[in-house]
Amino acid sequence: MAFELPLSRKDAVVQRLRGEMLSGELAPGAPVKDAELAARLGLSVTPVREAITQLISEGFIEALPNKRRRVAMLTQKQAIDLMDVLGAVLVAGLERAEGRLDQEWLDEFAAAVRGFQAELRPDQLDRSGKAFRRIAELICDAADNDELRAVTDHVLLRSLNRIQLYPSNHLLSLWGEAFGDTAGLLAGGDHAAAVQRLRSFFSDLIAAMHRDRSDDAVVAPRPH
To answer: Which long-range contacts (CB under 8 A, 24 or more apart) does 193-196 make?
Structure first.
């Protein structure tokens, strides 16, 4: 029977601070001081510092000169660049999967896409992100390229975390439709059309994001 291990102090701090940033309680650009956070959370400095290090790797906190840190400021251009790179690695992976997709893989991919679509709601972005990772994992498995997998893992870590800061409710339906179409085309044996559908989706997504606001605008979730 599966069970969940209790969070370590570091993981609990990561979860708490990430939630504050995603809710807007910790605003973009706010200074991050480990001693002040430790005092506020009633913890020693060590797990707070460890949590900050992880959140830097995830793109939620920025390391500045003179050992200063602040809540990351996501601009419109940065959000677009994240989606551009995510699309590039996934399309590259699917291209390299040609001829490697057996029925078992197709069934697993279709199930992963259905799971992703089921979680694709404004209040479930963290869960939909986890579901999306399964889609990316299957694409990497089929591509069978270790270097591409390593790059994809890094891109996923930054893009799926930071994009949660983006007000994207109006774009969610595009994701569900695109990956549903891609799964259908693959199931029908049209690999080239599936690759093109995925490529065109990211192109359309980026075009829609360009229409949202100027490139230098800072985007952030609205405080609850």
So the answer is: 194/94, 195/91, 195/94, 195/95
3-state secondary structure of 215: coil
Half-sphere exposure of 213 (CA within 13 A, CB side): 15
In sequence order, which ranges of the chain are alpha helices (DSSP H)? 9-23, 34-41, 45-58, 76-96, 103-119, 125-143, 146-162, 172-187, 191-212
**What is the Cα–Cα distance from 77 to 207, expressed in whole angstroms?**
12
Residue where the block lists tokens 């390229």: 145
Q: Which residues pair with 71 in a beta bridge?
A: 61
> In this structure, what are the phi and psi dihedrals at residue 200, rounded to the nearest 5 degrees?
-70, -35
Gap between the terminal Cα atoms of the chain: 37
Tell me which residues of the chain have a pLDDT lower than 50: 1-3, 5, 224
Locate tokens 């690759």: which residue?
195
Check: CB of residue 156 under 8 Å from CB of residue 148.
no
Determine the Cα–Cα distance for residues 103 and 117; give it in Å rounded to an integer: 21
Cα R_g (the chain), whole angstroms: 19
Q: What is the pLDDT of residues 69-127, one digit of tens each?
A: 999 888 999 999 999 999 999 999 999 999 999 999 999 999 999 999 999 987 777 78
- β-pairing, 69-71 vs 74-75, is unpaired
- Is-contact 162 59, C-beta < 8 A? yes
DSSP-assigned beta bridge partners for residue 63: 69
